[in-house]
């Protein structure tokens, strides 16, 4: 079940914990993808808080928001680049994206297979996708006070297995949100320190979210008739035929 866009906007832009979470996840994303010069970057779900650093350098940035969630204009004070669509039917051309960022789009979907199929369709050759989901063993998935407490949390193994079933190849993974999901002033002040320590230790099972980078698996093309020809046994393996014109010694 998707969260309402109003609640997501309230958390990420109106609460201190949400702004801290936004920065922590975005910093880890930028460590994986520091630039997007001349590329098309697509965000699905509620990924727009992470995409602002790419606005000045990417050829195009598009925020795709599912109808089950709702849409908001973004970015503020600039020409709108966000759009509303069905989660399994994006109004984007096949292979148009160089980068796809999925936040609050997979774990809350009622049809994650459709989401992954659209990601695979829209992602171009050589492109990368980054899926950010709640960590099932982390603290953030255990509290519904934040958006990460909703939907299906994942372990890294579960997420990688789901990607492979949809022809994605896992490349790299990271984690973020190592501080507790608390509005208490002490934890808010200590959040940046927790993030630095967590990033240095790189323990994906301790973070609140798992971030998995994947590429699209490209199948080798097959030539028509090749499989049929290869089914024929090689003649060198057959028994040697009788020489043409051989004399049959049993006959006079």
Give structural notes.
The chain has 252 residues and is α/β, with parallel strands linked by helices. Helices cover 30% and strands 21% of the residues. The chain has 7 helices and 7 strands, in the order H-H-E-H-E-E-E-H-E-H-E-H-E-H. It has helices at residues 5-14, 16-32, 48-51, 112-122, 156-165, 185-201, 226-231, and strands at residues 40-45, 60-66, 82-85, 97-103, 123-134, 168-176, 209-216. Strands 3-2-1-4-5-7-6 form a 7-stranded mixed β-sheet, sandwiched between helices. Helix 2 packs parallel to helix 6 (185-201). The chain is globular and about 45 Å long. The protein starts with a helix and ends in a 21-residue tail after the last helix.
Attribute tags:
single chain; 252 residues; alpha/beta; seven-stranded mixed β-sheet; 7 helices; globular
The backbone outline, from C-alpha atoms, is globular
Q: Count the DSSP helices.
A: 7
Low-confidence runs: 226-252
- Average residue-wise pLDDT: 86
* Percentage beta strand: 15-25%
Number of strands: 7
Structural class: alpha/beta
Q: Strand count, sense and closure of the main sheet?
A: 7 strands, mixed
Radius of gyration: 26 Å
- Written as H for each helix and E for each strand, in order along the chain, the element string is HHEHEEEHEHEHEH
In helices, the fraction of residues equals: 25-40%
Strand arrangement, major sheet: 3-2-1-4-5-7-6
Distance between the termini: 91 Å
């Amino acid at each position: 079940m998707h969260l309402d866009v109003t609640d997501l906007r309230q958390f990420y832009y109106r609460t201190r914990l949400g702004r801290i979470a936004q920065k922590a996840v975005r910093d880890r994303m930028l460590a994986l993808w520091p630039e997007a010069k001349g590329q098309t970057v697509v965000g699905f779900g509620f990924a727009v808080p992470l995409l602002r650093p790419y606005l000045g350098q990417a050829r195009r940035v598009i925020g795709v928001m599912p109808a089950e969630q709702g849409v908001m204009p973004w970015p503020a004070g600039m020409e709108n680049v966000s759009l509303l669509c069905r989660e399994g039917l994006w109004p984007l051309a096949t292979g148009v994206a160089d980068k796809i960022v999925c936040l609050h789009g997979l774990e809350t979907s009622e049809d994650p297979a459709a989401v992954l199929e659209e990601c695979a369709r829209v992602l171009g050759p050589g492109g990368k996708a980054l899926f950010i989901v709640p960590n099932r063993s982390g603290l953030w998935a255990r509290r519904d006070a934040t958006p990460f407490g909703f939907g299906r949390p994942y372990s890294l193994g579960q997420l990688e297995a789901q990607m492979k079933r949809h022809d994605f190849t896992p490349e790299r993974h990271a984690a973020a949100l190592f501080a507790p999901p608390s509005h208490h002033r002490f934890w808010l002040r200590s959040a940046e320190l927790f993030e630095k320590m967590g990033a240095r230790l790189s323990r994906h099972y301790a973070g609140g979210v798992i971030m998995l980078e994947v590429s699209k698996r490209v199948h080798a093309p097959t030539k028509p008739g090749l499989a049929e020809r290869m089914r024929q046994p090689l003649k060198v393996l057959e028994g040697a035929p009788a020489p043409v014109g051989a004399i049959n010694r049993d006959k006079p």
